[in-house]
Specification:
Blueprint (H helix, E strand, L loop, with lengths): L1 H9 L6 H5 L5 E4 L2 E8 L2 E8 L3 H19 L7 H7 L4 E3 L2 H16 L9 H6 L12 H10 L6 E3 L2 E3 L12 H15 L5 E5 L2 E5 L8 E7 L2 E11 L2 E7 L4 E4 L2 E4 L2 E2 L4 E2 L4 E8 L3 H25 L5 E6 L3 E5 L6 E3 L6 E5 L1
Parallel strand pairs: 18-20
Antiparallel strand pairs: 1-2, 2-3, 3-7, 4-6, 5-6, 7-8, 8-11, 9-10, 10-19, 11-16, 12-13, 14-15, 16-17, 17-18
Helix pairs in contact: 3-8, 5-9, 8-9
Adenosine monophosphate binds next to helix 9.
Length: 347
């Protein structure tokens, strides 16, 4: 319900609750929009599109999500990623597309100095996030796991992917962003000029709302699911958020979330509690970088924004109650009125 609320809010209330809520698994029309809600890639996904081509765009996007999940899922035994994970240390032939996604993941690992690392898979499993049987691994276990995490041992050559001995991969930090890029191209191909998708916190907006105003994408308050730290007013843009509040378990009063620091094999404690990356044209990059910057923390994250040469903006929420907005997006960011957060534009 919260997610549906967030989605409605993000859509600027353009969709009626009835129209959206009834869309589970199917397509429905509301207020001139075609909408679909589905559960895929372990998350709730909402898609909407207006105008001619909307129905085609949604139908093709749903099929695309299923197709990508069948290739990239770690938990589906028939996926290409599962084939790679069943053969650690060996060359595995996959589709050109899976190879390309892994290649992109390795690129963002290099750019982020290993903060983003798809060989994090055994760590994610050891903490129970793949099975929901949550546990805290022992210090000895963590030390053993750390040795398995090293993206430089993965190589892609043509359609062949080879991992290092004992390694496995997890594309959970990048697959939804890649899916959003694919959906963006399907929307454009179908001629959709207005629409919005949210793949569990991975938002892409197409054009403007039918009334000509910008889409309003809410950034959730990490401390309160019913509140927001602010709103982004966007058109033709990706806004992808990683937050420790999105998936976690609690033990002895402490919260353990799903974004792992490859250097500790434990949930990242960087001082950032939410990271949103915004770009006009690259959902895959936004997804990889949101995860990476969450691990890197404010200082290294801002250095990446300044020095990497990659074109993106960020909204960072710190555990100390600050909201940092990089200058390229500041004119499109609307603070939440009455919020206790301290807002700062970073230049
Ligand atoms: P996101 O929500 O995009 O930040 O992705 C989080 C998901 O990515 C987790 O559920 C894991 O599947 C995976 N993951 C966790 N830590 C990392 C990491 N340091 N690098 C790459 N993927 C990660
Ligand atoms: Mg990500």
């Amino acid at each position: 319900m919260r997610r549906i609320f967030a989605w409605l809010f993000a859509a600027g209330m353009a969709l009626s609750l009835a129209g959206c809520a009834s869309g589970a698994g199917g397509t429905s029309a509301s207020a001139g929009a075609q909408t679909t809600q589905l559960f895929a890639m372990d998350t709730v996904m909402n898609l909407s599109a207006y105008g001619s081509g909307a129905k085609t765009a949604l139908k093709n996007s749903e099929a695309e999500i299923t197709r990508l999940e069948d290739l990239l899922s770690r938990t589906k035994s028939t996926s290409e990623v599962s084939a790679i994970n069943r053969n650690p240390g060996r060359a595995v032939k996959v589709s050109a597309e899976t190879a390309a996604v892994i290649q992109k993941a390795l690129h963002y690992s290099a750019v982020t100095n290993g903060a983003f690392d798809i060989t994090i898979a055994p760590v994610v499993s050891a903490w129970g996030f793949t099975t929901s049987k949550y546990q805290i691994p022992s210090a000895a276990e963590l030390a053993g796991l750390m040795k398995k995490v090293d993206y430089t041992k993965v190589s892609v050559s043509g359609n062949t992917v080879t991992t290092g001995p004992g390694q496995s991969i997890d594309l959970g930090g990048i697959a939804k962003g890649y899916a959003s890029d694919r959906i963006a191209s399907l929307y454009k191909k179908a001629g959709v000029t207005s629409g919005m998708i949210s793949l569990g916190g991975n938002v892409w907006v197409r054009g403007k709302k039918p009334d000509g105003s910008n889409w309003r994408v809410a950034i959730q308050d990490p401390h309160d699911a019913d509140k927001y730290v602010g709103i982004l007013k966007l058109s033709d843009a990706f806004a992808i958020t990683s937050g420790g509040y999105q998936r976690y378990f609690e033990k002895n009063g402490k919260r353990y979330h799903h974004i792992m620091d490859p250097s500790t094999a434990a949930p990242a404690e960087s001082g950032l509690i939410s990271v949103t990356i915004v770009s006009s044209d690259n959902g895959t990059m936004c997804d990889a970088l949101s995860t990476a910057v969450f691990v890197m923390g404010e200082k290294k994250g801002l250095a990446l924004w300044r020095n990497s040469g990659l074109d993106f903006d960020m909204i960072l929420v710190t555990s100390g109650g600050k909201v940092l907005i990089t200058k390229g997006i500041s004119s499109r960011f609307e603070k939440e009125t009455g919020s206790a957060y301290e807002y700062e534009v970073v230049r």
